[in-house]
Amino acid sequence: MSGLHPARPFPEAAKSEVNNPQLRANLRKVTNTIREKRLRAVGELPHWEELRVLGAATKDASLAHLSDRLLELEASVKARGGHVHWARDAAEARELVAQIAQGHGVTELIKVKSITSDEIELNRALDAHGIHAIETDLAELIVQLSHDTPSHILVPAIHRNRAEIQALFNRELGDPEHLSDDPAVLAGAARRYLRQKFLTTKMAVSGANFAIADTGTVCVVESEGNGRMCVTLPEVLVSIMGIEKVLGTWEDISVFMELLPRSSTAERMNPYTSFWSGVTPGDGPQEFHLILLDNGRTDVLADEVGRQTLRCIRCSACLNVCPVYERAGGHAYGSVYPGPIGAILTPQLLHMDDKNANTLPGASSLCGACFDACPVRINIPQVLIYLRGEANGHKGTTLESVAMGAARYAMSEGWRFEGAVKLARAGQGPLVHGGQITALPGLLGGWTQSRDLAPFPPQSFREWWREREAEGAGGEP
Amino acid sequence: MKIDLFITCLNDALFPKTGQATVSLLERLGHEVRFNAAQTCCGQMHLNTGYRADALSLVRKFVNDFRDAEVIVLPSGSCAAMLRELAPDAAHWEGDEALRSEVLELSGRIYELSEFLVKKLGVEDVGAAYPHRVTYHPTCHAMRSLHVGDAPLRLLRNVRGLTLLPLPHADECCGFGGTFSVKNPDVSTAMLADKARHILETGAEACTAGDNSCLMHIGGGLHRLRSGARTVHLAEILASTPGQVWA
What we know:
The complex is a heterodimer of chains A (about 475) and B (about 250).
Chain A: H1 10-18, H2 21-43, H3 48-64, H4 66-79, E1 83-87, H5 90-103, E2 108-111, H6 115-119, H7 122-128, E3 132-135, H8 138-145, H9 162-172, H10 183-200, E4 203-206, E5 210-212, E6 217-222, H11 226-232, E7 236-242, E8 246-247, H12 250-264, E9 272-277, E10 287-293, H13 297-302, H14 317-321, H15 323-328, H16 339-350, H17 369-373, H18 380-392, H19 399-410, H20 414-427, E11 432-433, E12 436-437, H21 461-474
Parallel strand pairs in A: 1-10, 2-3, 2-4, 4-7, 5-8, 7-10
Antiparallel strand pairs in A: 5-6, 6-9, 11-12
Helix pairs in contact in A: 3-12, 9-10, 16-18
Chain B: E1 2-5, H1 9-14, H2 16-28, E2 32-34, H3 44-48, H4 52-66, E3 71-74, H5 77-93, H6 97-107, E4 110-112, H7 113-120, E5 133-136, H8 140-145, H9 151-157, E6 163-165, H10 180-183, H11 185-202, E7 206-209, H12 212-224, E8 230-233, H13 234-239
Parallel strand pairs in B: 1-2, 1-3, 3-4, 5-6, 5-7, 7-8
């Protein structure tokens, strides 16, 4: 698995993940810790709900004028000495980065953690051009060194524990001394390795959390400072951003500086927030390229219900509260966007006829914890339900659609429903053992995998009511 | 007050006792209870599984069956959430603005049982008696869509003889999710296993909730584990008195 495209339907992918006890334990521990910390951080702000409403409105306003904002951003970046490129899809974006690198004769570049670059599978494409991309975010580095893929938007190596990382670093970083499993020792080894890269590498690639149209400023928000090294030390900087990341003005960004850190890492303020506007002679990279990536986003924007998905600021709060993510893990979603946001973003970016991606809207019990946690009020359960309908439109007639149609017909009249219940009651006999149903056939077989079912009782409510009415009619008024 | 009951399809067919207990409880509180036998289903299963047109034909039927109701009470949080929150959206998605305004107009009169008692009637002590150790699972739709808050807990605290045991990780979904439980049985089972473990940790004899769909799933899991703990709908506890035990 890599990039956006799930290789398997979600239920199948989840089956192999959910039965991994180490993964379950790692995920439970981390998500529960972040969940509680986030609640505390959010609870400190009495105006949190107002901030969420403002965050949603700010993004919506930008999205409503997206083409104007993007053209304004392009003009501002150019005016400040930067270059702007438009990429319709992943392939165009990858090619642009490779061309810039080749233009500078670069065979190695450093990267700021960027999920957008993962979306377009940049590292693999650069490899094919003989260019090695080095991840500088600690967790991304862990994922890269272990030839793995990220399983969380914010904590890409959430599925790995300390012992696994110790073994990996001892093997991959070639440290002469055996590293202990002390997090400080492990971080120190990564720091030594990365520092040498920061100081010697000519080109960097970043994503963007936000871009400000009227000043041509790009913003990266991170916790380790590695991102700041990447956007200040090399000579050439390339930033790839999804077109939905653009905001109008500096005022627009302030609300997200409150919403994002508290939602993602439960911090009051973000540790490293870097802003850069084009190039400044003698200070920082002397060549700057901004790649504006569509890759399905304008189609999402065109959909009245689905477009709220583009408000997402990639905080990952929805992942950390999701009971399905907690059990299945990020890899089950088969895309760089896991969890509840991935379940609605991935299938929309790939379009609803993608037969693996269109199982993702089903990867939710619709409990609504994600909507409650979302700092920009994306009504994820609503979009999930909507997308399930859109997906069915591409599936034609199935056993399920026939069963649903039959159920709807049976429920179209009270008497018809009563008849269907009577029929089911009469037919359930062979399934009932010791007063319970312990194995169901066909589509319903999943139920009895772990659950018994009480059989239909001898009298339905409506039969009881009719009997009561009849008795009542002959007795007291 | 004249109360129209929407018993919901699952309660009608599989959990008639919940409906009977609801009738008994509301009549005990002095209300006139009506049941329009034309009613069937809110369409939630169809909508949540992506069968919008089927769902909307059932929503339309609901609107027709209950148009003249003064208040509509449901012993189900998820069906109430379907009608109040989702049905108007779905009608809009399908371009049926007339149905959308009709269901929106009706939605102000739709109540889940516990919110009806506490928020509409202002009753927290319904005169119930149920001498058992009970833990309460707040179902997702009641908690997050309807915002019933602590209404069920207020009612339970006033039940004579009842020992209310706090449920660890109470606000985590039990893993039912309608057809989710059948289409994603592995994840659903993993969620259920944790919920069942937390319930058993409380030492409760019974787990209660305002939704028989979630309870069917939790109860099915507890039964499979041969745990001895069982599930009981909130209505059946609230209807119970020393003279008449419902659950």
